[in-house]
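WARN no homologs supplied; continuing
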Amino acid sequence: MKELQKMRHANILNKARIEKITESFHNAQQRLLLIDWDGTLLPISENKNKMQPTAKIKHILRKLNQNSKNKLVIFSQAEKEIMQTWFSDLEIDMVAANGEFVNLAGRWQQFDIFENDWKDDLRTIFQVFVDRTPGSFFKENKYSLIWNYSKAAFDLGEMRARELVNELISVTANMELQILEHEKEIELRAGGVSKEHASLRWLTSNQWDFVLVISDGLTGERMFEHLPQNSYTISVGKPQNKTDFFVKKQEVILEFLEYLNEEQNEN
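OK structure emitted
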């Protein structure tokens, strides 16, 4: 617990660090902004209607995207049909279904198809943890199983999350699967499908002189390897070893993005 508190204090996105990022943003001519949706700009909810972007959020994203120096990409667990409904009017690039689909210049493309037989054997484990943790639930995407404990009692939820991760590490040791820890979620995903893997399509497409990555869970080693020198990574919800900075609440990210918009208006 002391190590977690030390990390949280060291990495928190304070005013001085915001000014450092803003200065780099101001001086850059080619900026890449990779922003996660679920749990980053809005809290994760079982109710998809509560995950719809508000008018305020869309205004912030629209202003960022309208600057010719910016390339904005939004990532989500949501299916591409939902992403299309929510964001098509912004004319931004998108990644849907945790990396299975990407939208470039208004056209959806699908990544390679992966086998899903593994889910039949592991689905029961997730249901056991739902039964043992009141307030939790699990959901299933095409290439992943996700256990959510956002409505569970805090101490019980955290304890069960550690137990589930340990259980999954044990049973998937010889399988091509990823175990991902998000804000109040544990996800088991097919190894070749990820937002981080999809992000390489943009990271390797240009010589960016500024990259900003904001997410509630970053794990892809290859993504970090392709980040240029003037890159900044921010985690939302809880601190992570690999990210530069951390914020607790989504509202802080929205205020930060609004501040970048004000800065680019002066640029």
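The first strand starts at residue 31 and ends at 36.
OK
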